[in-house]
């Protein structure tokens, strides 16, 4: 055992002292740097785009002048509103935290119109209520009090439900009541939980998300029970559960938003922009570069000893050949995982430095037995890393086997890297041509992430099947490598 | 004498072609054993079987009593080797190379490692990368890795290949010291008799996979010296030959014209050479050179095999 460990140490020394390894290491970390950099630039560019759109509208005075010259329909009312906005110094940038005030002013004028319509129709009670609501909006704006605005919104939603109409127009929608109930729920929730009516506020966004999911649930359950899309319903219900849980527990960031083993959420409207987890959860893509590096090392760890002639000096030691074989394979594998780990830590550090470490404690939310549970986000990303490394390990083993059998670095590295990069396409082509035995090709089984979600190249490919196929291939690769190294003469 | 290396009935075939045919020999502690034979005779194959790089098809090799095939690790603990060229990891320093071997062998301390470095005279360059070493330095580093763990048996395959004369002498001294002072058995292969003569105590001669003879180097040299050939360089070969033909003690078949300016004479004793020289000088033939010709390995094979079965080991 001590000898085995010493051989592994020797292999590590050999791997790490090679110039090619150092160059590759630098390349891998440059890739991580580039990925984070691109994310940062994308983020900045998005913000710039939003800020520029602000200049598009012009000031209130500009807008009033435009309306006066065009005299388009209803321009008088528009001018009245704009003048009110101008007189009360209401900011107009819709990314601004005070943007709700503009909405409130519009709502106020709406309600005033409504009141007029009701009183003309002789419904004094409703007219009074509408006027009162308009008054509430006006007070909220005057006091710059968004909580009062939230409460006024509840009144609007209640009135809509009671009247079963919207803005004075009798609705002809089917099952409008249920929709209005959802809207009322939202307004009440926002008021009760004091969620700021700010467009960009995460809670507000999340609440909008829950509302839209509830609305789509109403639509999904319209059809008779037997015809319902159960999958879509389950998906919507899961989203509602997760998002409500986040609102209740004040969880701003949930890493499961950024793709999972079983992707639960794909609605990006609720995600919180380019935060730490969004960027960090995207880093498994860079594992391709580590994979190529590991395949190169695996393909040369045996054959380079033959090409330089050092194999004779390696084998003339009091260590049995099979121990050297095991040590070489273990070294490659452990080096691969060390690289993944280093890459993982490096990305935590890099994404943290660029996007902030504030969200580090964010959980990974999932539904288990009908309840929301919190998992570790770090483990979640780690699992993404591991799944992304399955293909790497298989192709590194293939490269190792070819290297042991042919004793040629060029062949083993070339074959390993080529198959790693093109194998999936081969399987995809076979799938496209309906060649069914393609399912027994290893490349059709390496995307465990998708297969576990039920997405596969061939019909009825399960996770168990994929793992079994991978197991068979790995056994063949390793036996071939063993035979080539342990049993054959060194000429 | 303690037997360190024991080879018994060793046979090896590559695709039915017999490379080694029933070879048996022993090498003892404290001696340098020369394994002599032309290129392609099976020297490297034998060494590769001794070091476990190849498996034998028949027979066995024991090192310090341990069968290489059956108790590989025990046998290898007692062996140090340079097979073919001293190829070590060029991208590492000499020291790192030696540490690679240190980790795989028992009981090598850092002090022993530095002692070995000093022994082969590499202390000034040991931290340089091996790819910057000259061939002689690589050979010395090869020796260092081979003797690191004080093996009972040292096996070297054509160790003087490519070395300059100074390097050869250095290596020769190192090997002699290891055998005669430290009591190791040194097993050296070569295709040059002259080299073996200066280095070895005993030699085994191999030709086409068969071991022809095993005998002390002195005995072999004496046998080879039984008939001596001298080359005379003279102003006029024609006149000289006439004079020699008149000498009764020299049979005509022992004289051979070998060029425009020289001829060879085969004699049984050096006395005859003195007589010829005196006679030629007396007759006024200008002698510009008299030199003994070294016999080729092939000549010796011919002699040993030609002089009957009693000489074959």
Characterize the structure shown.
The complex is a heterodimer of chains A (491) and B (313). By secondary structure, chain A is mostly helical. Chain A has two domains: 2-45 and 280-487, no CATH class; 96-250, no CATH class. Helices cover 70% and strands 3% of the residues of chain A. Chain A is built from 20 helices and four strands. Chain A has a two-stranded antiparallel sheet. Chain A has a two-stranded antiparallel ribbon with strand order 3-4. Chain A is elongated. The two termini of chain A are 29 Å apart. Mean pLDDT of chain A is 86; it is low at 261-271. By secondary structure, chain B is of the alpha/beta class. Chain B has two domains: 3-223, Rossmann fold (3-Layer(aba) Sandwich), CATH 3.40.50; 226-294, Reverse transcriptase/Diguanylate cyclase domain (Alpha-Beta Plaits, 2-Layer Sandwich), CATH 3.30.70. Chain B has helices at residues 43-50, 72-77, 94-104, 110-119, 135-147, 165-180, 193-199, 217-225, 237-245, 270-282, 297-306, and strands at residues 3-14, 17-28, 32-36, 58-63, 66-67, 79-82, 153-157, 185-190, 202-207, 210-216, 228-234, 255-257, 262-267, 287-292. In chain B, the strands form three sheets. Chain B has a six-stranded mixed beta sheet with strand order 6-7-8-3-9-10, sandwiched between helices. In chain B, strand 1 and strand 2 (17-28) form a beta hairpin. Mean pLDDT of chain B is 87; it is low at 307-313. The A-B interface holds A 3, 6-7, 9-10, 13-14, 17-19, 308-310, 312-313, 315-320, 489-491 and B 48, 51-55, 72-74, 76-77, 79, 81, 83-85, 87-92, 96, 99-101, 103-106, 145.
Mean pLDDT of chain A: 86
Determine the CATH topology of the largest domain in chain B: Rossmann fold
User: Which chains have the largest interface?
Assistant: A-B, 24 and 31 residues
Assign a percent range to the helix content of chain B. Answer: 25-40%
